[in-house]
Design brief:
InterPro entries: Carb_kinase_PfkB-like (IPR052700), PfkB_dom (IPR011611), Ribo/fructo_kinase (IPR002139), Ribokinase-like (IPR029056). The chain is of the alpha/beta class. It has helices at 57-67, 82-93, 155-166, 176-181, 183-192, 200-207, 212-220, 262-275, 280-294, 307-317; strands spanning 2-7, 11-18, 27-30, 35-38, 46-55, 72-75, 77-78, 96-97, 102-103, 110-117, 120-126, 140-145, 169-172, 195-199, 226-230, 236-239, 246-248, 324-325. It contains 10 helices and 18 strands. α3 (155-166) packs parallel to α5 and α8 (262-275) packs antiparallel against α9 (280-294). It is globular.
């Protein structure tokens, strides 16, 4: 039996690091309005380009979970182009089962172009139109449902039915298309979710408000059980019952190269700890350590930790990550 099946899209990432030494007259960051601005008509120098296959929320979770010792499979729809074939090979090399990978004839890969400027980034994402249909899957311990493209609405009924039929625990980490559907449309999935992980901005879009504890209380009204909200450099807040709330910060002196994949790494670490039977506070630390490693390297996958790597990071940064009841 698999410990985990990850459900969602896979993407090829192209990361472009803007050369900040030569572009001050053509580029700027507006922190107040959350904007990265480029002068139109200009040719912007790029200091480094990195291409990462088998990226995206589900792929990152599947690969990260396998590295942490879980028996993992992925359900994802790929195309028939070379990137799709290479992506499948990455999964195989990372010990992720491709038993449920669909190679769609004539389809192309999903792509995202990530513009890194200093410590900020903007992502341009392209999702190839897919024909989603939930396949017959075996009983597993956990399923992790995350970002998919348009026309995925059939999953809102199929996934809860699958969870109920086989008594499977569901973790849900919504992607951008799912968040745009709004709270009402997501209620069937949320009601089936044993674990919901999202960031502060996503929580605000679903239930409004700035206070993370209040957001968790509102989200629990949908039926979701354990809920964790991440908040970048402010750390994360989580609760398993809507009454007891934990906060875990982030290491202050850990290197930050770029933040792509930080949320996926956190979710992966948290869920792995949960599957291993750890309490919520310790699971939040696992998530934070995994995310800390990922943002210290380029791309969403390079920093995903093994269990040995997690132990090493815990020795290095764990003393800063004491969970606190708030």
């Amino acid at each position: 039996m698999y410990d985990l099946i990850s459900i969602g899209d896979s993407i090829t990432d192209v990361l472009l690091e803007v050369d900040t030494t030569d572009t001050e007259s053509m580029c700027r960051v507006d922190q107040e309005k959350c904007l990265i601005c480029f002068e139109y008509g200009s040719k912007i120098p790029v200091s480094k380009m990195t291409r990462v296959l088998a990226s995206g929320n589900a792929a990152n979770n599947a690969i990260g979970s396998a590295r942490l010792g879980l028996k993992t499979a992925i359900y994802t729809v790929l195309g028939s182009d070379q990137d799709s074939q290479d992506t499948k090979k990455v999964f195989e090399d990372e010990d992720v089962s491709t038993e449920f990978v669909v190679m769609e004839s004539g389809g192309r890969s999903n792509y995202s172009t990530i513009i890194d400027y200093g410590e900020e980034r903007t992502i341009f994402a392209y999702h190839e139109p897919r024909k989603y249909s939930f396949p017959p899957l075996p009983p597993v311990k956990w399923a992790y449902y995350t970002s998919v493209g348009k026309n995925h609405e059939i999953f809102h009924t199929q996934i809860p039915e699958y969870m109920k039929k086989y008594d499977i625990s569901l973790a849900f980490s919504p992607g951008s298309f799912q968040i745009r559907e709004g709270l009402e449309n997501l209620k069937p999935i949320l009601a089936a979710a044993d674990l919901l992980i999202l960031n502060k901005q996503e929580a605000m879009l679903l239930v409004g408000g700035e206070d993370l504890k209040e957001s968790i209380v509102k989200l629990r009204e949908t039926g979701a059980k354990t809920i964790v909200i991440t908040d970048g450099a402010e750390g994360s807040v989580g609760s398993f019952d809507g009454k007891e709330f934990w906060r875990v910060g982030v290491p202050q002196n850990a290197p930050v190269v770029e933040s792509t994949g930080a949320g996926d790494a956190y979710s992966t670490g948290f869920l792995a700890a949960t599957i291993y039977g750890k309490p919520i506070a310790e699971a939040m630390v696992w998530g934070t350590l995994n995310a800390t490693s990922v943002i210290g390297q380029i791309g969403s996958r390079a920093g995903l930790l093994t269990k040995a790597g997690l132990e090493e990071f815990s020795r290095k940064y764990g003393i800063e990550l004491k969970p606190k009841l708030i």
